[in-house]
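BUG-142 | component: ligand-complex export | severity: low

The export step for zinc ion jobs runs without errors, but we want the raw record kept on the ticket for reference. Input record follows.
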Amino acid sequence: MDDEEDLYKEIIVDHSQSPRNQGKLEHATHHHHGYNPLCGDEIELQLQVENDLIEGVAFQGSGCAISQASASMLTQQLKGKTTAEATALISTFKTWMKDRQAPECPGELGDVEALSGVRNYPVRIKCALLAWTTLEQALAGN
Ligand code: ZN
């Protein structure tokens, strides 16, 4: 299989070049700075949580296309979810990312399915996971 084509699907390139929800929130209630030393990827994630509902999400970051696209796709999934639903989504994503044999991408992950090729490159999995572990930490209040 062609590495480049497998990893850098059009939708990943699109998200990395035009990240969704990029920026800062006026009234963030949660935030966390995530760093992946293996690749140098960084993500500053902010959330606005009201009555346990995620009302706002924004991120700023730098690093490889996989890490930034994954962050962009993740933020698209969050608005309107409860913190418990977000936590469940993180767990679904991690399980799917770490199991190369898992056939189908769980439907609730949406565009995130484009990251399926990353599962064949263990070093890049850290890039894809960064935004999600950063979200986990932000929700935990770290
Ligand atoms: Zn990376």
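Assignee comment: Attached the raw record above. The chain has a mean pLDDT of 92.
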